[in-house]
Structure formats: C-alpha cells, structure tokens
Amino acid sequence: MTASTLPAAKASASAVSGRNTPGAKKRRSNREGFKINWWLTALMLAASLTVLLPLYFTVAMALKSPDQIGTGTGLAWPNPMNWENFAAAYVATNFPRAFMSTAFVTVLSVIGSLACSSLVAYAIARNWNHRFFRGSFVYLLSAMFIPFPVIILPLIKQTALLGLDNPAGVVFLHVLGGISFNTLLYIAFVRSIPVELEESARMDGATTWQVFRKIIFPLLAPMNATVGIFAFLGSWNDFLLPQMMIADPSLQTLPVVQMLFQGEFNTNYSLAFASYLMAMAPTLVVYILAQRWVLSGVMRGAVK
C-alpha cells in the first residue's frame, strides 16, 4: 500500500466504523422509524366506538328473542342466541325479490353515474376556455346548494307523468342527482392528465370518443372507484326516493320493505335488526373491497 492510498483507506475505515457505532444506529432508526402519537391514537380509538358500539348493538339485538329484548340492557349479549330471527326476517321481507330490486337500482345507478359524470367532466375540463362550459360548471355546482326535499315533489310529479314511477325512474334521478358532486371530483382529476396523450392519439386517427374510451377513462380508475362507492352507498341505502316514486309494492327496495317491522303501536326489533344486518352485508363487502381506492382517489384528484 502506497502513501497516497493510506488517507483514503483510513477515511473508508472510519466511515464503516461510524456506521457501526450505537449512535449512528440510533440516528438511523430515528430517521427511518416513526413516533407514535398516543394522544391521536387514543382519540381515534374513542372515535371508532361511535361505529363499533352501534354495530355491536345491532348484532346483539338481531340475536335476541322478544323476551330478552324486554329485560336487561340493550348491550347485554343474548344467551341463548336466536338465529331463527334471520330466517323469519328473510321470509317476512321476501328478501330475494327486494334484494334484486335494490341491486337493479344500485348497479344501474353506479354505471350511469360513472359514465355520465366522467363524460361531463371531460367535456368541461377540455373546453374550459369556452364560456358555455364554464357556465355549465357553475350551474352544476349551484345545484349542490339546493336542498333535495325542496324539489322532490315536482320531480315525482314529472316522473309519474312520464311513466317513470318505477325502479327505472329512481335510477334516472340518482344519476342526475349525483352529476354535480361527481363532476366536481372528476374535473380535478381530468386536468392532471396530459393533453399530449390525446393529441398523439388524434394524430393516429382516433376520434374524440375513442380518445375518451381508450385513454381517458382507463386513467380515471382511482376516481372511478371513489365515485362508484359513493354512488353505491347512496343508492343502496336510499329510502326517500323509492318510497315516494315506486308505485308497485312488489318492486320496492330493501330500505322501504323493512318498514313493515314498525307497526302503529309496537316494533319487532329482533326481526328488524336481523333484516338490517342482511341488507348491510353487501355494502360492507363492497366497501372493504374498494376502500383502498376511495381516499387515494379523492386525494389525487384534490392535489393534482
């Protein structure tokens, strides 16, 4: 080893020894790790009780007999558990028929919301320099500030005159009612997509519809998941529109059919809560499968 290489060797040895010292390990662990905020964690645990306690109460009530409901507290766990409540609620509500009617309204509402809102947002975002499209955006946003109960009676009258007093009419109003909020989410995301992608596709002979269908819509996947879950929850749990619009009782959705457990002088809580759990199961499954895209879609649309 020559004299010129001695300083470099010493420097490398000192660097290696410095990385192996306890102080260096501590500093590296502090940089790479994270500090737990116990106050925030406790706050989140307390906030989670607002969801977990009602869910526990619902499950406990669904497994109780009428005699068990009349005694003790509502939070007491039933012993023995009455699984027959689910079978009785299944028969009382004609669950398959009500489930299919609700699924019909929900699936078409989700598909219609994704298609219509994304098209409207794409048209506005790519034609923002035109006064008509800017005015259309302001018009859509203003619709968000109108309370729905104010316009529900005229809407029901119009849909009845058009022969839409059925699940198809409910789907139509769900899609139209969600355009304002959904377009607001989509526009922020569409603006983040480079226009050069569309220009290159047009140079290859693609039409506007082909550009949207093959380039824009696939890139909207995170926002599609966000809008889809919002549309699903809003349609599946909707009570007001189906109750006031659907004239045929055999076509009513689950939230409306479940009202049969509430009489004029009493309520069958066991069957009612069992029916609520059966109706809630699809929403939980859908949300668990899509929840990882919901927050990411909103954040990406807001930041970009």
Question: What would you call the structural class?
Answer: mainly alpha
Uncertain ranges: 1-19
Largest sheet: none
State the helix count.
Answer: 15
CA distance, first residue to last residue: 57 Å
The share of residues in helices is: over 70%
Radius of gyration: 28 Å
Give the topology string: H per helix, E per strand: HHHHHHHHHHHHHHH
User: What is the strand content?
Assistant: under 5%
**What best-fitting shape do the alpha-carbon axes yield?**
globular
User: What value does the average pLDDT take?
Assistant: 81
DSSP strand count: 0
What do these coordinates show?
It is built from 15 helices and no strands. By secondary structure, the chain is mostly helical. Helix content is 75%, strand content 0%. Helix 12 packs antiparallel against helix 15. The N terminus is likely disordered. The relative contact order is 0.12.
Which features would summarize this protein structure in a list?
304 residues; 15 helices; globular
SSE inventory with pairings:
Blueprint: H1 6-20, H2 22-32, H3 38-62, H4 66-69, H5 84-92, H6 95-126, H7 131-143, H8 148-161, H9 167-190, H10 195-203, H11 208-219, H12 221-236, H13 240-245, H14 254-257, H15 269-303
Quick summary:
With 304 residues, this protein is mainly α. Helix content is 75%, strand content 0%.
